Amino acid sequence: MSATPKIEPIGAKVPEPRQNDPDTLARQIVEKLTYSICKHPEQARKYDWLRAVTLVVRDRIIDHWFPSTDRVRDSGDKRVYYLSMEFLIGRMLRDAINNLQLTGPIREALKRYNVELDMVELLEPDAALGNGGLGRLAACFMESMASTGVPGVGYGIRYVHGFFRQEIAEGAQVELPETWLVHGNPWEFERRDSSYEIGFGGKVLTQQEPGKPPRHVWRPAERVLAVAFDTPIVGWRGSQVNTLRLWSAQAVDPILLDAFNSGDHIGALVESNKAEAITRVLYPADSHQAGQELRLRQEYFFSAASLQDIIRRHLGENDSLDNLADKVAIQLNDTHPAVSVAELMRLLVDVHGYEWAKAWEITRATFGYTNHTLLPEALEHWPINLFERLLPRQMQIIYQINADVIREASQTGFDGAQISAISLIDEGNGRRVRMGQLAFVGSHAVNGVSALHTELMKETVFRNLHELYPERIQNKTNGVTPRRWLMECNPGLTGLLTEAIGPGFLDDIEKLRDADGLADDAAFREKFAAVKRANKGRLADLISDRLAITIDPGAIFDIQVKRIHEYKRQFLNIIEAIALYNQIRAHPEKDWTPRVKIFAGKAAPSYVQAKEIIHLANDVARVVNSDPSVRDLLKIVFIPNYNVSLAEIIMPAADLSEQISTAGLEASGTGNMKFALNGALTIGTLDGANVEMLEHLGEDNIFIFGLTADEVAQRRREAHSGRSIIDETPLLREALDAISAGVFAPESPARYHSLVSNLYNNDWWMICADFEAYWNTQRELDGLFLTQDAWQSKAVHNTARMGWFSSDRSIREYAKDIWQAGPGKVR
Ligand code: 26V
Hints:
Elements (H helix, E strand, L loop, with lengths): L21 H14 L10 H30 L3 E5 L3 E4 L2 H7 L3 H9 L5 H6 L4 E3 L3 H16 L3 E6 L7 E5 L2 E5 L12 E12 L2 E5 L7 E5 L2 E13 L6 E11 L5 H5 L8 H8 L15 H25 L6 H4 E6 L5 H13 L4 H11 E4 L10 E3 H7 L1 H20 L4 H7 L2 E2 L5 E3 H7 L3 E4 L2 H9 L3 H6 L4 E3 L6 H7 L2 H11 L2 H4 L14 H26 L8 E6 L8 H17 L8 E6 L7 H18 L8 E5 L5 H7 L5 E4 L11 H7 L3 E4 L5 H8 L5 E2 L4 H9 L5 H6 L1 H11 L12 H9 L5 H20 L1 H14 L5 H13 L8
Parallel strand pairs: 1-4, 1-12, 4-11, 12-13, 13-17, 17-18, 19-20, 19-22, 20-21, 22-23, 23-24
Antiparallel strand pairs: 2-3, 5-6, 7-10, 8-9, 10-11, 14-16, 15-16
Helix pairs in contact: 1-2, 1-4, 3-19, 6-34, 9-11, 11-12, 11-14, 13-14, 20-22, 22-33, 23-24, 23-30
The site of ligand 26V has 22 residues, from helix 6.
Function: Phosphorylase is an important allosteric enzyme in carbohydrate metabolism. Enzymes from different sources differ in their regulatory mechanisms and in their natural substrates. However, all known phosphorylases share catalytic and structural properties.
Family: Belongs to the glycogen phosphorylase family.
Protein name: Alpha-1,4 glucan phosphorylase
C-alpha cells in the first residue's frame, strides 16, 4: 500500500494569504450568497447577509484554527480543559470580527451593497447557554485563553433551549422558551467521529481473583450517545483559535425497529426522546439546587463524554495515562462537573487497570475546582439512592474515596464533628452525596473568585477541609474580557482612549493606567463625558422603542442589572426609589438631581420572592412614571429579557452601578467590573470583588456603604430583625407603609405583604440594617453629579484603573498557579 500523500489544507498560507481588503471581502460575501446560500445579492434578505458575512469570517477563523490545533499537538504542550455546564457567550460575530481586526474592511465591503454591518450583527441570536455570572465567566475565560495563548478547550452542553426568554405581562415575569438554533448555527461543526457512549443505571460486576484486588465492571442498563459540536473561539488579533466542544445527546438506536415494525410508531421513538431530553434545556435556577434526576443525568453525561474525549486524545499522543497530569489540566467550573472525579477514577482503575493509589494521585494532580457561591441552598448534594441507581459504580468509588479521606482525617486527630463536616456523605439530611466535598478532595487546587470570597470559603463551607489540606485553597479574582466589554460594546470610548494614550492598551489592558492623569484634563473630561452622553442616548432610544418610556440622558443613569435574588437586594434599591419619590413630592422646592433607575434581570421560575421583586419594580415604575408631581425628576424602568446583548448596550450607558449585595454573599460579581471599566461609578457594599475594586480605584472613586461581612454574620447570630430600625427611620417606614397600603398595586393591595413582613420579622438580607447608609450615600452622589467636573474625573479614574480586572490577568494566574500550562509557565 502506498503512503497517504500529505495534503496541505487550503488557507492562510496555502496557496496564499487571504486578502482582507474591502474589495476581496465584498467579492467573497457575494460568493457566499451565491454558492452557499443560493441567493442573488439583489434577492438577499437581511438574514442572508448575516449568514454570508458569518461564513466569510468563519473561513478566516478556520485558517487560524488548523495551525492553532497543530501547534498544540506538535509541541506536546499541556492542554487546559474547562468543564462547565454553562457558557453564556452571547453573539459571536462581532467578537470574531473585532478579534480578527476586520471591523473596518467588512463595514466598507457591506456599504457597497447598502448594508450596515451593525444591522447585520444585531440579527444574530444570543447563545444563552448559561444563567448568569458563572456562565458568563466561562465565556470570558474562553476568549481570554485564546487571547493569552493558553491552549484551552471548553467542554459543555449543547442545549437546544438556552436560558428562557423573559416577558413582562402586567408587571410580572413570564417565561418563554428560547430557540437559538431554529435558523441553524453557522459557528458549529458536528463531529460524528467524536461520539461516545454514556451509560446510566445497571449493575456492577465484581471479579475476585486470589491475591489480587477485586476488579469491577459496570454494566449500564441504558446507553446514550454523546455527539460533539465544535465552535471556534478566536483570540485577540486571531493569534490563537481554541475550541468549545459542546455535547449533544442522541439515542444509540434512534428508532426501535421491532416496535416500529409492529405498528407502535410512538413507542419506537421512546428511547430517542429520552436520550435527547438530556441536552434539551438549560436549568434556569442559579441559587437553588434543582434536585431532579435529569439534572444529574446532564452532569454525568457531559462529564463522562469529556473525560472519554480527553483520554482518547491523550492516548493518541502518549503511550499511557501515567503522565496525564503533565499534559492535561481539568478545571471544574463549580461542582456541576464534580462527578468527573469519580468517573476519572473509574476509567483509570476499572478500564485502564491502575491501582487505586496511583489513580488517585493522577486524578488529584489533574483536577482543579472553582467555587462560585457559598449560599447553602445552592450547594449541590444528591440523594444517595438516586445516585446509586443512576451511577452505581461511581457511588462505590465515592464511598472508597470517603473512607480514605476519613482515615487521613482521623490520623490527623480530627474529632467526630470535624469528620462528619468533611465527609463526602451528609448523614444528617436523608443521606446525600456532597459534591463540594468530592470536588475539593479530588483536586490539587481549589479556588474562590475574589479575595473576600476565598477567605470566607476557608472560614465557612470548607473550614474543616481547609484545616486538613491547608495548602489547597487559593484565590483567583474574576475578570472580564476587555475585548467584548470595552472595545466592542463601547467603540466611542475605545476611540477616545486610542486617540489620547495610543493603541497600546488594546494589547495590554493594564496600559489604561496611562489615561489616569487625564482625569485632571478638562478637555479630555469633556470628551469622555460626551462619549457617555452618546451611549446614554443609545440606551434612551432603546427604552423608548421597547417600552415607550421617555428618559432624559441628562439625568443620572443609575443601573442595577443582574439575576434577581434576595441577596443582591434589588428590593433595597426599589425601597430607596420609593423613599426618593416620597421626598420629591414632599419637598418640591429642593434641588433634586434627576435620576433614572434602571433594572433588568431574570428570576428563577420557581423563586417566588424574586418574582415578587420584579413585579414590585414594575408596579412602582408605573405609578412613579405617571405621576406629574415628580416632574421627571425620577423615572423607573425595568427592561425585560436581560441578556448579554442587552448588557453590551447598558454597561457603557451607566453613570452609577449598583453593587449592593448583602456583604459576604456575592462571591465576586463581574457586572461591577464591566460598569467601572466603562466609566460608571459604583455604589456598593464591601462584598465580592468590590473590595478589590476599592483597593485599585482608591476610596475617592467608589462609594462604599453598609455592614461588612463580619457585621452581617454577627447580626445574624443575634437574630436581628428590622422592626426597631423601621420604627426609627421615617423614610424607610413611609416607603414600606406605602407598599403595604397597596399604593403600587391598588388592584391587589396585599400583593407585597409577605415581602414587607419579612423585613419586620427577620430582615435576613439586612435591607433595613443598611437602608440609611444606602440612602445617605445616594444623596452624596446626587450632590456630586451636580458638579460634573468632579464626577467625570472620578469616572475617568474608574476606566483608567480597571485594567487589572481583565480576564486575561485571571487566566494568567490560573495558568501559572493551578494549571502550570500556557504562557503562565514562563511568565
Ligand atoms: C447553581 C445551580 C444549582 C442547580 C441548578 C442550576 C444551577 C446553576 C448555577 C448554579 C450556581 C451559580 C453560581 C454563580 O453563578 N455564581 C456567580 O459566579 C460568578 C462568577 O464567579 C460570580 O461573579 C458571582 O458573584 C456568583 O454569584
